[in-house]
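Your task
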Amino acid sequence: MLKNLYPINDKLIRFIRCKIQAFYLGNKFFNFHWQDKFRKL
């Protein structure tokens, strides 16, 4: 039973980790982008 669930769980964990990483990097880029815009004003 657990052996059947493990691959799905592993994929889910990897997917969530990718989402968190993408969100974190996107947030960092977004903040940098806005700081740059305000500097130009």
